[in-house]
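Reminder to self: tokens first, then the designed residues, so the page reads top to bottom the way the pipeline ran.
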């Protein structure tokens, strides 16, 4: 098993009612199953912590927000159950954000690919820099954005999601993502973005927690079936990743 699968981590720091959850991986913040499991748990724990009023989801580093699924782990999958379990990791993170009773602010400092777009789509309010281009590359490696699709469609609409899903090798810039509703604000620098995040978090932590909890339920109305839906989607991806077509596509993609 590749060393990359065992790399990466998640940290959670609570300060003055704000929980900052940060994930990291040396390969452009890609997400192996182990890191996905830690991320889902950290979000759930922060949601249950009475000392936390607001959650900020971020990744480490400057250039990449999240490169999506770990290719090293994808090519190591040899059976359906392992495949479904891996893709269920993304489903679990999205569902953890959906069910979390606290509002989650996203901080997207750089490019987001595949599952990274899914994460940005699942926060409740998203800040980004002008470097935060997006791409759903799944079809280009023989799969498809099945697990993250519902979250992306919820934010971008079917038109925006299908544009990304079909034209899987082309980046859309941060301005495109802002116009489509994925990002609420975009900034030239991370410093400006962080100032705006701190300002909003400061306002929100003084807001009525019960009102924010009820608002969150309103925002996510119509997604009550996502436990089942995303599990079905994980099964679709878990089956596709076993095909020779997908294995060859992933190997070719890794060599680029």
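Designed residues (256 positions):
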């Amino acid at each position: 098993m590749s060393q990359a699968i065992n790399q990466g981590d998640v940290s959670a720091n609570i300060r003055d009612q704000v929980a900052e959850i940060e994930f990291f991986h040396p390969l452009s913040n890609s997400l192996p199953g182990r890191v996905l499991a830690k991320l889902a748990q950290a979000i759930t724990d922060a949601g249950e912590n009475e000392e936390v009023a607001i959650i900020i989801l971020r990744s480490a580093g400057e250039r990449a927000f999240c490169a999506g699924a770990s290719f090293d782990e994808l090519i190591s999958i040899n059976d359906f159950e392992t495949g479904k379990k891996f893709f269920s990791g993304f489903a679990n993170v999205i569902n953890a954000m959906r069910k979390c009773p606290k509002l989650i602010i996203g901080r997207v400092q750089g490019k987001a690919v595949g599952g990274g777009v899914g994460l940005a789509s699942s926060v409740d309010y998203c800040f980004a820099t002008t470097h935060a281009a997006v791409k759903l590359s799944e079809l280009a490696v023989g799969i498809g954005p099945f697990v993250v699709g519902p979250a992306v469609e919820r934010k971008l609409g079917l038109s925006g999601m299908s544009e990304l899903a079909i034209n899987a090798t082309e980046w859309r810039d941060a301005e495109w993502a802002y116009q489509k509703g994925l990002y609420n604000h975009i900034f030239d620098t991370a410093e400006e973005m962080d100032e705006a995040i701190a300002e909003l978090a400061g306002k929100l932590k003084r807001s009525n927690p019960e009102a924010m909890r009820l608002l969150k339920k309103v925002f996510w109305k119509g997604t009550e079936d996502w436990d089942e839906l995303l599990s079905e989607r994980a099964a679709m991806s878990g089956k596709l990743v076993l095909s020779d077509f997908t294995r060859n596509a992933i190997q070719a993609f890794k060599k680029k």
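The radius of gyration is 17 Å.
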